[in-house]
Amino acid sequence: MIKDTYKDAIRTLNSLQTNASFLEQLRRERPDPRAQLEAMRGFLERSGLQVEDLDGLNIIHVTGTKPQGSACAFTERILRGYGLKTGFYSSPHLVQVRERIRINGQPLSKELFSKYFWLVYNRLEETKDAAQASMPAYFRFLTIMAFHVFLQEKVDLAVLEVGFGGAYDCTNIIRTPVVCGVSSLGIDHTSILGDTVEKIAWQKGGIFKPGVPAFTVPQPERPLEVLRDRARELGCPLYVCPELDAFEAGSQALELGLAGGHQRSNAALALQLARTWLQRRGYEAGPEVLPEVPPSTELLAQPSVPLAPVFRPSDAMIQGLRDTEWLGRTQVLPHGAVTWYLDGAHTTSSVQACVRWFRQAAFSHDKPQDGSEVRVLLFNATGDRDTAALLKLLLPCHFDYAVFCPNFTELSVTGSADQQNFTVTLENALTRCLENQKTWGRLLEEKGGQETPWLSPPRQVGGLLEPAPLRGGGAALLLVPPAERPLNSPSLVFPCLSHALQWIAQGRDPHLPAPPPKGGAHPQPVASSGAVLLQEAATIHVLVTGSLHLVGGVLKLLDPSLSQ
């Protein structure tokens, strides 16, 4: 019997290993990283494609630590506004695997996903021999499949987000992208990419190609020097993007579809990537010519890397920035008395940005006239990330409760094949959550009532906190007076997300069932006393952050339509 359904495809895909085991495979291959690209070329050829076939995809190749996915989303949305047929390959997915491969901004349909999955899978099975008996791992397989999709569906361009690093990432088998981009750099995947920002910058700069223009957002001096040296080594013209303020000179502020001050640098990068792609592909001669305009503010290039030009964004660019959507990143879901704030931040820099966004978003929310406002943190982190460093950055939010939970939506994963991870057991995941809970308690004890040095204090006007102004119309992080919210946050661990969300919402989110009766699944005193507080609160603000897989699981439960 021919297996051609979507569920069959997902189950078979999962058998190729999940993300965690792929990272472990990369660690084993690290002594000879060039072997990764050679293996990828071999898999591509076995699937029926040559590397040369990818030259016609008009690729925009983007790397960075986080959030390069947002920069890709801005870029894709802008170019789609020019009437171009776009392909977009990103990772990870939040709810369904087919989100990783998009045509014109929409996830591949289940029918098309099944069609191309079995096309590639069967070709790879048929070409096994004594010398090439293996199948590509999960991420490599999806990358090959994305290339097939984009070629067969005849996209005008493909926005390609790097998976891990850059130099030896499997997406880097491409030879001639139209333009490359590097978003903000930080520490992540240290066991693969290196334990310093400079080492990571070397990896990221590996996507540069001879004669292909590349753009980076402003970076710290040393990482920028590494990118500059890599660009010179590879014969690539590199430019630093001016801040978004420069594009707003003498005109209305640009509205971004993605919230958070950190998204402004991603938008500035996207403008340069889109404009350069249009120029290099001859679209500038169309009806929307982009005249350069002098910057109204003083813009200095960072050391020995020239500044990219400032230009007046076209109407399509302005609308594209405004209409960009990217689930699970600075996303707010108001559900009755409960407001969910979702941001898959898992590096120190992205958690800092997440906290700034959350504090401003929660501050702008209508304050309850009667009753209390309760804040809850829902957190998980996986892999080799420094959980203590991430949790420490979340302390200034002064949560009333901290909830730690694995990325499993249910205790049984039956029916959730898209989110299965065969390499992580419930026992291991819960052990990590218990460690995170202990870390949180220790941080609270150490912190006491100290102020957080990296935050500027707000001004107080008439007893209210006023956000300090920032360039570009943003606002500084809002500090809640310690006396109002002492650093005393009881914490709980739940075995799955459905249990955690039910306890947090206490039947007050119409999208979630009520929790079990008292004395059922939550016998802990903290759970019982907290349930009363949550039931009586006027509003509940929940920040869901850490692993993107955690955010995806929460989205799956809060918005079942995403699973259709």
UniProtKB/TrEMBL annotation:
<keyword id="KW-0496">Mitochondrion</keyword>
<comment type="function">
    <text>Catalyzes conversion of folates to polyglutamate derivatives allowing concentration of folate compounds in the cell and the intracellular retention of these cofactors, which are important substrates for most of the folate-dependent enzymes that are involved in one-carbon transfer reactions involved in purine, pyrimidine and amino acid synthesis.</text>
</comment>
<keyword id="KW-0597">Phosphoprotein</keyword>
<dbReference type="GO" id="GO:0005759">
    <property type="term" value="C:mitochondrial matrix"/>
</dbReference>
<comment type="pathway">
    <text>Cofactor biosynthesis; tetrahydrofolylpolyglutamate biosynthesis.</text>
</comment>
<dbReference type="GO" id="GO:0006730">
    <property type="term" value="P:one-carbon metabolic process"/>
</dbReference>
<keyword id="KW-0460">Magnesium</keyword>
<feature type="binding site">
    <location>
        <position position="189"/>
    </location>
    <ligand>
        <name>Mg(2+)</name>
    </ligand>
</feature>
<feature type="binding site">
    <location>
        <position position="329"/>
    </location>
    <ligand>
        <name>ATP</name>
    </ligand>
</feature>
<dbReference type="GO" id="GO:0005524">
    <property type="term" value="F:ATP binding"/>
</dbReference>
<feature type="region of interest" description="Disordered">
    <location>
        <begin position="508"/>
        <end position="527"/>
    </location>
</feature>
<keyword id="KW-0067">ATP-binding</keyword>
<feature type="binding site">
    <location>
        <position position="161"/>
    </location>
    <ligand>
        <name>Mg(2+)</name>
    </ligand>
</feature>
<dbReference type="InterPro" id="IPR036615">
    <property type="entry name" value="Mur_ligase_C_dom_sf"/>
</dbReference>
<dbReference type="InterPro" id="IPR001645">
    <property type="entry name" value="Folylpolyglutamate_synth"/>
</dbReference>
<dbReference type="GO" id="GO:0046872">
    <property type="term" value="F:metal ion binding"/>
</dbReference>
<keyword id="KW-0479">Metal-binding</keyword>
<feature type="binding site">
    <location>
        <position position="91"/>
    </location>
    <ligand>
        <name>Mg(2+)</name>
    </ligand>
</feature>
<dbReference type="InterPro" id="IPR023600">
    <property type="entry name" value="Folylpolyglutamate_synth_euk"/>
</dbReference>
<dbReference type="GO" id="GO:0005829">
    <property type="term" value="C:cytosol"/>
</dbReference>
<keyword id="KW-0963">Cytoplasm</keyword>
<keyword id="KW-0547">Nucleotide-binding</keyword>
<keyword id="KW-0436">Ligase</keyword>
<dbReference type="GO" id="GO:0004326">
    <property type="term" value="F:tetrahydrofolylpolyglutamate synthase activity"/>
</dbReference>
<keyword id="KW-0809">Transit peptide</keyword>
<comment type="similarity">
    <text>Belongs to the folylpolyglutamate synthase family.</text>
</comment>
<feature type="binding site">
    <location>
        <position position="343"/>
    </location>
    <ligand>
        <name>ATP</name>
    </ligand>
</feature>
<protein>
    <recommendedName>
        <fullName>Folylpolyglutamate synthase</fullName>
        <ecNumber>6.3.2.17</ecNumber>
    </recommendedName>
</protein>
<dbReference type="InterPro" id="IPR036565">
    <property type="entry name" value="Mur-like_cat_sf"/>
</dbReference>
<keyword id="KW-0999">Mitochondrion inner membrane</keyword>
<keyword id="KW-0472">Membrane</keyword>
<comment type="subunit">
    <text>Monomer.</text>
</comment>
<keyword id="KW-0554">One-carbon metabolism</keyword>
<dbReference type="GO" id="GO:0005743">
    <property type="term" value="C:mitochondrial inner membrane"/>
</dbReference>
